[in-house]
Amino acid sequence: MATSLNDMMQTVPQWSDYIRILPEIVLSLFGMAVMMLDAVMDESKSQKALGAVALIGAFGAIGATLYQAQYPFGYGFWEMVRVDAFSIFFHFIVAAVTAVVILASFEYMEVQRIRAGEYYGLILFGAVGMSLMSSAVELVLIFIALEISSIATYILAGFRRRSATSSESSLKYFLLGSFATAFFLYGVALMFGATGSTSIFAISRSLESGNISLLAYAGLAFMFVGLGFKVAAAPFHVWTPDVYEGAPSPVVAFMSTAPKAAVFAVLLRVIFEINSPVPTRMWLIWIVAALSMTIGNIAALVQNNVKRLLAYSSIAHAGYILVAFAALPSSGIPAAMFYTAAYAAMNVGAFAVISHFGGEGERYVTMEDYAGLGKRSPLLAVTLTIFLLSLIGIPATGGFFAKFYVFSAALQANLVGLVIIGVLNSAIGAYYYLRIIVAMYMHEPKQEAPVAPIPMGAGLALAISVVVTIYLGVIPGRVLNYAQQSVSELTPVGQVVSLQAPHAVEARMATNVKKALAH
Amino acid sequence: MLHLVLFTVFGLICVAGAINLLVQTHPINSALSLVVVMGSLAVEYLLLGAEFVAAVQVIVYAGAIMVLFVFVIMLLNAGAEERSKGSIVALMLGVPGMLVGSILTAWVLVKHSGTQPVALGALPGHPKDIAQLLFHDFLLPFEVTSILVLIAIMGAVVLASRPESIEKTKKEN
Questions:
Q1: A343 vs chain B: nearest CA distance in angstroms?
Q2: CATH code of the domain occupying B1-82
């Protein structure tokens, strides 16, 4: 092992290294705090308190992310993680989704009679994995982070212990998910075999030097299959409806947004940073995107269970995001990032409504139950309508600009066929989202499903989601600018980053951080 | 050449063990197949020059973890032990197959005995190198694994606890 003098001096992690993983540290500490408090506190009183601790943890992670952003970007832990505008964007999404989901779970836990301790702990630990995924630039670390996020969600899916569908959901997710992770791991191993490294930059450098072996193609393909499963892209989507139907609704809100955002971050890094001249990969993404949009939307048309419907809709939305992946990096990456953010806001909101309205045992989840909701609970109906309109992509909501940027990025890359498929799919999608809205306002209920008044936690969660959805639809500029700014940081390594030895960057950063701390 | 032959042979044994692990119906048989998988994996590591990992593989996986596995299976009513006298097919095909296989291996070994043996410690795989990788280059993944294990433990606790017991504690309060 060749060790330079610089290396020898830095055999222990520096302060700057810890700043690079500050949000993860905060989340882990609060996760452990929740576990400890759960053990020592009286169970009848602890439930809300544990939620509050978890909430502070999630907001702490948001704060840590913002704090991190003040420092110059760069590597940590010997090129394991890379903090840049890109990772901060996704850290923010993950932490914000975590906070909103915890808020939405406050009363849900009581209604469903679920014990809170492990629940909040798992959500926080899961968020650790998701955050790490978005900043990791080393496939081994990405794999471990992916496992943390996946295993946390497998368990969370089975939290409604009295319901058989919840256990079914958890088990199905676990079995198929481990299979997909194995695919990813196999891809990593093949990639290591082809290039001799698991660092994304080293892989990229090795592939750019030409002479790409078959192993590298196979490795990339396997990794794509594994990640495609995690974002529920067709043809790896079959698990989605069953898992979403059985899992607790706040958990679905969580796992349909935060881990997906993190996996999309990994995909963006893997696909655009390993900037190998692989024309076939575009076709691969083209096909997967088209399939996901079409299968998701068409299957959603015939669903009567609202959770299943949104599960298929999430497959379709994964397809829309993948359209951006087929585009050029300069416009595709910001479009995908913006879409991820907008989708997180509207989907978390929609599931927050479902989890409140579902009642004990999540009984009220069919289209008939939603009939006449507009009269019984106008506020709940209006919020759900906003989220559904945003999912359709109506102007003045985040979903509109998300779709707009994705399709315009695809047009810039001359992907006319894909854009046509996408627009047609949006039209199909409008039908089933509108069906729910029509049911809420125009249908008379056969049997009135009771609606409890909106409690504070869920109310706050809904308010945040509505504000973000509309904010992204009215003033998308700031978020989009930030996303665009992060692209320049993500440029293929061959041009910018690899010219400087990362260790030199690291050393410079360390001095910068020291200076900053001295102030 | 010898290297490749041994590698292939143990690779095949490993895969065969893994398949057998899946198709066996009795948990103990599956556990024993897992020992085969672990053992042949250790040989593969050794052939790749990772002596330390190979030793750890034998001690930790084939040794400690397998014992634990077998204990758990025994404690969780593994079902009655079946006394089979062995199938005729296994006797007719298995014994000659084993003989032919070992003779073939021995023949290849003898034929290529002229090749230089791999000296221990000649390849990277020294504990010092592993320490450098584990506690320096891959320090973060190594530490983060602890969170992964913690989650797995929490999951076991959550999913193994009976839902009734939760309800009961609720009622008591």
A1: 27
A2: 1.20.120.1200
